Amino acid sequence: MNLLQDGEDPNNSIYVSFNRDSSSLAVGTKTGYKIYSFNSTERLDKIHEDNIAIVERLNSSSLVAFVSHSSPRKLRVYHFKKNLEICSHSYSNSILAVKMNRKRLIVCLEGSIYIHTMEDLRISHTIREIPPNPTGLCALSSNDDSCLIAYPCSDKTGEVAVFDCIALQNKNVITAHDNALAAIAFDPAGIKIATASEKGTVIRVYNVLDSTLLYEFRRGYARCVTIYSLAFSYNSLFLCASSDTETVHIFKLEDRNQGRSNEESQSWFGYITRAVSNVLPANMTEVLNQWRSFAIARLPFSRRKNVCGIAMINRSPRVLVASGDGYLYIYDLNENDPGECNLIKQHKLDGIEESENRRPLGM
Questions:
Q1: What local confidence, expressed as pLDDT, does residue 221 receive?
Q2: Could you tell me which CATH number the domain at 10-255+289-348 has?
Q3: Facing residues of 127 across strands?
Q4: 164 to each of 223, 234, 236, how far by Cα in Å?
Q5: Domain map of the chain by residue range?
Q6: What is the per-residue pLDDT for 4?
Q7: Does residue 248 contact residue 240 with C-beta atoms inside 8 Å?
């Protein structure tokens, strides 16, 4: 994701992306790109290239794909350990997003999506005449047994098209929201897909195979926000959502009655829920059935673009947030104890000027 705010100097552009399991972070700036590993948060490599606009890493491999501001229509694939350019491709319009897994490389333009095979990086298929997609919103499943791409099939409503990149055919269309989409993400198994609309109050999780609604989470009631990113945890048990507010929400994907005694669920709680549902309007009943966040992480700012992820670092779950203020924030996540996540580390991403609006966090 490009974290440049509207109206800011393009020379200060910063692009950040987590890899498949959020175990590393790729950062692109005007001076080049860097790749960070979260095993020890050490920098793996740095390659200089003027005005990097997009950079993506293939899992934990040495393969990266990047686009420069000086050549926004040209994709370059690079092996950074061998210091070798594998190939390059040029397209008819500016590249807005690049996604990779072990089988396919996806290039998203505003009105089309190109699918490349990873064996030879040739174009195997092009999805043409898609609705205007100026942000390049799309998601690619990372599971080796499935290779699905999801993208908006409407610029007015929240419909998600799911396309099989191996069979080269449409899988299904999920009507996820009334408003246009703002964020989408596959879980690691490629079985679930999370969606958020431009309104930003409700986040939904669907079964990719049959479009069944599995979970519905409410980030807030009255406050509309801009959702910047969605990311599942390594075990698909948690889903984090970051926005233009100072709060990152972490939702838990579990049975609603888990942890509640059978006696409680079958007595007063169930009775009240059924009774109220019969009286309230349908939209209010829907709110009652939506889950709130399991945990939250507080950022020292609001209204700055950011990307979130959940990773295992030294065998402990951590919430990661890379922000346009030039910092990576790392929070703890207690999988059994809901509440507020503690900030345990923050790192300055070298080469990025610190925001004047940034407030320091107590540590």
A1: 62
A2: 2.130.10.10
A3: 113
A4: 36, 23, 21
A5: 10-255+289-348
A6: 77
A7: yes
